[in-house]
Amino acid sequence: MRPHDLPPPLPLHPPRHLRGPSGRCRHQGHALQGRRRREERHLACSDGGGAAEDGVPALLRGGLKAILDYGSEDAEEDDSCDRNLKGFLDMVEMVASPAVPESSVSFACVKVTAICPIALLERVSDLLRWEKKDPSFRLPWKSHSMPLLSQSSPLYQTPSMPNPLTAPEEQDLRSALHRLSTLCKRCAEINLPILIDAEYTSVQPAIDYFTYSAASEFNRGDDPIIFGTIQAYLRDAKERLVQAADAAEGEGLSFGFKLVRGAYMSRETELASSLGVASPIHRCIQDTHACYDDCASFMLEKVLSGSGSLVLATHNLESGKAAAGKAEELGIGKRNRKLQFSQLMGMADGLSLGLRNAGFQVSKYLPFGPVDQVIPYLLRRAEENRGLLSASSHDKELIRKELRRRMKTAVLGRAY
Ligand SMILES: Cc1cc2nc3c(=O)[nH]c(=O)nc-3n(C[C@H](O)[C@H](O)[C@H](O)COP(=O)(O)OP(=O)(O)OC[C@H]3O[C@@H](n4cnc5c(N)ncnc54)[C@H](O)[C@@H]3O)c2cc1C
């Protein structure tokens, strides 16, 4: 199948191999079952029918892999950061255990907002923005990093010179960097790459600082362990991506990026308008689409040359098709592990299966964690992604087609 033929008909229910007699995902006696009792309270519903423990092998049978997304909320203080780190490490140990089929999990996913207090991320971001405004401004705690902000990055969130970090703040920053390094070290040991999520711009410079610190330490082999995230809805996205890629190449590091459009549009727009400045987001969705495809093209060239790795995280059919077509045109092998596609579990299944059928590597984001923690986490993500959670017009059209086909079958007794 050629990528241009994407996607196959949308399954209105899980495909046959994922279904039990009730039509819901089945709880088979797979390798993880022995662990079920112990882990039960620790696993989130992944698809409305099964739990994450069922989800991983079920995805594998369907030719897809899982990205484990530990469902932790933003941390306010050190204690919750330590608890969240333990949760991340437990998740990694589960992946490392012989009970999980080898290579069924393609990535772990981490939110820096869960392992560093938000207020500190805001302070560090402020200081990094001021350093961008005034390069003579000294940040004694800052180690060598790839470029974090570009000429076109908006700096309006830091209108005046921030106070330096206090000694306890510096200590907290060291502890938070150490948490990320501990997690990355364990992931590197078991060769499980990490995707670091992108958040809103008030904390993103600090998150990129964490990401690039970890990348300098762990991306020394051919394949990166640490992947940052670029949000194409930001007007400075391409410039920051190119700067970071150039810097990594200059230092002989491998680099990886997850490319998304961005989930915090209303938050960014409201903040900018409350300050009376232009929004950091592209003026219209067409510009965001163009930026996404442009960043994807740039990274595909890096995949081809071998220095970069790319996860295209999107539900957008046109972007999926364009990237798959460009990869084919460049001659990037579909089994090349430096190119991956990803969608959220239960969303855009037509695109996921179409890409998989075309031979590409596709993973689904699978929420993971204690149920009492993951439910609020999912509700918050749902709130942030209201637009995204309403089915795309393409998915709606496929659903309509399938309903029409079934009604005809019911009335006329045969399928068309
Ligand atoms: C696997 C995966 C991982 C993700 N990780 C992250 C992450 O780490 N950080 C994060 O922020 N998001 C993340 N997201 C969410 C992502 O950023 C998008 O919100 C979501 O995927 C919708 O975009 P789309 O490419 O799928 O498709 P589409 O539905 O085509 O795009 C919708 C997106 O376009 C943008 N947009 C809409 N209207 C306008 C407008 N008027 N002007 C400019 N832009 C506009 C918005 O970003 C909106 O979300 C992730 C998504 C997936 C699938």
Automatic annotation (TrEMBL):
Keywords: FAD, Flavoprotein, Oxidoreductase, Proline metabolism
BP terms from Gene Ontology: L-proline catabolic process to L-glutamate
Top-level EC class: oxidoreductase
GO cellular component, one term: mitochondrion
InterPro entries: FAD-linked_oxidoreductase-like, Proline_DH_dom, Proline_oxidase
Sequence similarity: Belongs to the proline oxidase family.
Name recorded for this polypeptide: Proline dehydrogenase
Organism this protein belongs to: Iris pallida (Sweet iris)
